[in-house]
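User: tokens in, sequence out, please.
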């Protein structure tokens, strides 16, 4: 049995690693405006010794996420000397460590089968694969959500004040890495705590509340320093946003409830392989078993399951306070870990119930088969590596730089978000690493290179070209990349 357990673990771990490392090795990871901007910020902080106390922008004008994402980026920047893939490797290592640590936690506190089911689900999950290499501030949030679940378990099991602090700390970091989620989960946690005798006893003590508050405050300290320095500009912008009569993306209440319900279903469905609808329904049935029979689990595990079952609808209801459309569905990224934990609690219940234990093997074997299928399908698929993400921008920039052979040259760039942060970061990296010249904005030897990213709005491209291409120019060279980006060399001579 020991060798069988080890073999199953190694098979699933292989699938887990393969599906995450392949996009990183192939450089097909997402590389967009946000990644370029944030990588440049990390570079600026190291190069100019300019340590900031605030992070990327939120959906509210004048309000920012916490700085912790930038601080995280400093680590791979220093380790990999700015190598673009280094950021993705760091995120992969983070989530590999986080998930394997939680696997070990489940194995020790639940059982081996529950731990294996956890790894089997997240190994092929659409959402959890993406979090391993989508380099953005909101993709730090899931790690803190998992930390939140762990802290709650320890708090309910041992009732020690240090776990009250850790629970507050996890919610503080959730707030700082994705403000919207933090605004929903903190009040939902406090309200949920009032519904259970055990949690009411914990939070009504002044000492315990002080530990919870301390945990919440620690991650927010850089934000507080920023506010003091800038005359509380964010606080004013935030209050103005909520008290303003005008909504940016207003939705009627019925439409609001419907939109949130659809979003939450998308969160649930994203847990499973290729967001499979049938799998989502089957595992929803498993959670219904937990809701009905949760009293059959040990007290601390029952309390945690009950608490999270209440927490989720409260998060949903609190989200309705804001009458705006969610606009970005990643506002609650990380709630998937709570949903997965409910699946695991239900599965654990099955393994502990003699009459239902056979059903647990159905769910586990199903997920093991899906892992084998996903791995085999991807390995045997003979298809060229697509020119997307980091691979595309890297190929485009390398092409232009190699054409100029470390000589002075002119370069102008068009990208749909206006600011070409992605190309700027790659330029900075290759200039520093390989000695290429800093491109000029004015023609060199009456020539200038143009990178024109694909944009469905052709009028926007033409408008940019009319402003950036001299009227007496004529085309000398043109290359259209696989991703439809145009690389053009123009001469300004008559």
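Assistant: Sequence out:
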């Amino acid at each position: 049995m020991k060798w069988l357990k080890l073999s199953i673990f190694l098979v699933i771990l292989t699938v887990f690693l393969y599906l995450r490392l392949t996009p990183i090795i192939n450089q097909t990871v997402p590389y967009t405006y946000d990644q370029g901007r944030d990588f440049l910020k990390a570079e600026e902080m190291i190069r100019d010794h300019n340590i900031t106390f605030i992070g990327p922008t939120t959906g509210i004008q004048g309000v920012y996420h916490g700085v912790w994402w930038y601080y995280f980026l400093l680590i791979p920047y220093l380790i990999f000397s700015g190598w673009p893939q280094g950021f993705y490797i760091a995120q992969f290592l983070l989530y590999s460590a986080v998930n394997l640590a939680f696997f070990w936690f489940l194995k020790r506190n639940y059982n081996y089968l529950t731990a294996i089911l956890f790894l089997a689900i997240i190994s092929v999950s659409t959402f959890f694969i993406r979090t391993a290499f989508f380099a953005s501030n909101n993709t730090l949030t899931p790690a803190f959500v998992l930390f939140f679940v762990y802290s709650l378990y320890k708090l309910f099991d041992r009732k020690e004040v240090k776990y009250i602090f850790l629970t507050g700390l996890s919610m503080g970091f959730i707030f700082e890495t994705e403000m919207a989620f933090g605004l929903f989960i903190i009040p939902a946690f406090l309200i949920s705590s009032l519904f259970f005798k055990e949690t009411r006893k914990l939070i009504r003590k002044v000492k315990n509340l002080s530990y919870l508050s301390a945990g919440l405050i620690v991650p927010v300290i850089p934000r507080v320093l920023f506010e003091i320095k800038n005359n509380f500009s964010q606080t004013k912008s935030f209050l103005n946003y909520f008290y303003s009569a005008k909504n940016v993306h207003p939705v009627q209440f019925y439409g609001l409830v419907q939109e949130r319900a659809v979003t939450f279903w998308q969160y649930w469905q994203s847990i499973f392989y290729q967001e499979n609808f049938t799998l989502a329904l089957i595992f929803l049935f498993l959670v219904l078993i937990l809701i009905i029979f949760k009293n059959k689990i040990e007290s601390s595990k029952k309390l945690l399951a009950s608490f999270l079952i209440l927490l989720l609808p409260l998060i949903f209801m609190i989200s309705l306070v804001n009458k705006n459309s969610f606009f970005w569905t990643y506002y609650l990224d990380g709630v998937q870990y709570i949903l997965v934990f409910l699946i695991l609690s239900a599965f654990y219940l099955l393994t502990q119930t003699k009459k239902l234990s056979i059903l647990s093997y159905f769910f586990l074997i199903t997920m093991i088969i899906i892992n084998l299928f996903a791995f085999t399908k991807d390995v045997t698929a003979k298809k060229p590596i697509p020119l997307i993400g980091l691979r595309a921008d890297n190929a485009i920039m390398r092409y232009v730089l190699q054409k100029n052979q470390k000589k002075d040259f002119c370069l102008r760039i068009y990208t749909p978000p206006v600011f070409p942060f992605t190309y700027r970061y790659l330029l900075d990296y290759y200039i520093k690493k390989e000695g290429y010249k800093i491109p000029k904005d004015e023609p060199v030897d009456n020539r200038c290179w143009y990178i024109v990213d694909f944009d469905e709005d052709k009028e926007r491209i033409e408008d940019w070209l009319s402003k950036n291409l001299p009227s007496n120019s004529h085309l000398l060279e043109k290359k259209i990349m696989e991703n439809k980006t145009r690389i053009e060399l123009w001469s300004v001579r008559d």
